[in-house]
């Protein structure tokens, strides 16, 4: 008797038009898809698809077979889904987007305690807003608000962008320049130091520099590392400067591992928002994650809780 998985694979190829698409939809390997198709073609005795480049075009016999098996397979899949729902407790899955450093500093410590499944996504804020609007993400943590009418934003905390350095940085000479000289002298002093940056996002450094000196920095950091938490660990070696959000290095400054060098002539801050769709089936799970964020942020005395 024919293997039913061959028919399911045949239907997936017909629907997606490629072996790769069928493999992705069935969560099996592409060689497995090819094996199922060749086995079914050998069983029925005729070719089911013509291969044109990467596309799989059904033959006339393939179309006839699809029309014959499509509806029965759909009914069988519905029976399978209904049976699974009735016999297993369905655990909801929540997809949350944020930057990598925010995850490490806040939610990571609570993941093992969550009573639901969790998928964490890292990306740029415009991309996450788009994925939230499309239903790919259920919740995002962002300093930027989108314009979609389907998304609501709730302010819950704020961050200040500050200049920090290793404990061996000569802050006394810097403070004398700040108190007695102008912006040009301050900028010259800063440019003489070693700087850290990240591979993906230099926005904090650019904004801080523009706000205090009126232009983007005209130098490149000496050391480029994967993320902001890497910068903080490197600075604990004693030297170097970086511009980072204050809540990421609160403990290191309090412990004396890092120095708060300068908040800037003009302070640079961001409001942090929860972003979620106005209509969701996972409100209780989203509220649970929001509560964990508020719990962590409330411990940061100098990060205001809104």
UniProtKB/TrEMBL annotation:
Keywords: DNA-binding, Transcription, Transcription regulation. PROSITE patterns: HTH_LYSR. One of its GO terms (molecular function) is DNA-binding transcription factor activity. Residues 2-59 form the HTH lysR-type domain. It comes from the Bacteria. Belongs to the LysR transcriptional regulatory family. This is DNA-binding transcriptional regulator, LysR family. It comes from Chryseobacterium shigense. The lineage of its organism: Bacteria, Pseudomonadati, Bacteroidota, Flavobacteriia, Flavobacteriales.
């Amino acid at each position: 008797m024919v293997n039913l998985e061959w028919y399911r694979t045949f239907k997936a190829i017909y629907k997606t038009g490629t072996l790769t698409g069928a493999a992705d939809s069935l969560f099996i390997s592409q060689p497995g898809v090819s094996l199922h198709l060749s086995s079914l073609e050998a069983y029925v005795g005729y070719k089911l698809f013509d291969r044109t480049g990467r596309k799989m075009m059904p033959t006339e016999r393939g179309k006839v077979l699809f029309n014959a098996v499509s509806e029965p397979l759909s009914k069988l899949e519905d029976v399978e889904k209904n049976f699974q729902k009735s016999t297993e407790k369905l655990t909801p899955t929540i997809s949350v987007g944020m930057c990598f450093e925010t995850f490490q500093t806040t939610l990571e410590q609570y993941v093992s305690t969550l009573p639901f499944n969790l998928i964490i996504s890292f990306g740029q804020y415009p991309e996450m807003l788009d994925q939230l609007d499309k239903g790919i993400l259920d919740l995002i943590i962002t300093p930027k608000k989108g314009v979609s009418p389907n998304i609501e934003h709730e302010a819950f905390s704020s961050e200040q962008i500050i200049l920090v350095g290793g404990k061996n940085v000569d802050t006394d000479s810097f403070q004398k320049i700040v108190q007695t000289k102008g912006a040009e002298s301050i900028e010259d002093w800063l440019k003489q130091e070693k700087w850290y940056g990240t591979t993906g996002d230099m926005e904090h450094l650019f904004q801080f520099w523009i706000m205090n000196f009126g232009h983007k920095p005209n130098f490149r950091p000496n050391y480029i590392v994967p993320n902001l938490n890497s910068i903080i660990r490197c600075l604990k070696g004693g030297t170097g400067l970086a511009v980072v959000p204050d809540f990421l290095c609160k403990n290191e400054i309090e412990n004396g591992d890092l120095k708060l060098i300068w908040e800037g002539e003009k302070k640079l801050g961001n409001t942090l928002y929860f972003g979620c769709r106005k209509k969701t089936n996972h409100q209780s799970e989203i509220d649970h994650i929001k509560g964990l964020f508020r719990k962590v942020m409330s411990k940061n005395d100098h990060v205001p809780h809104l």
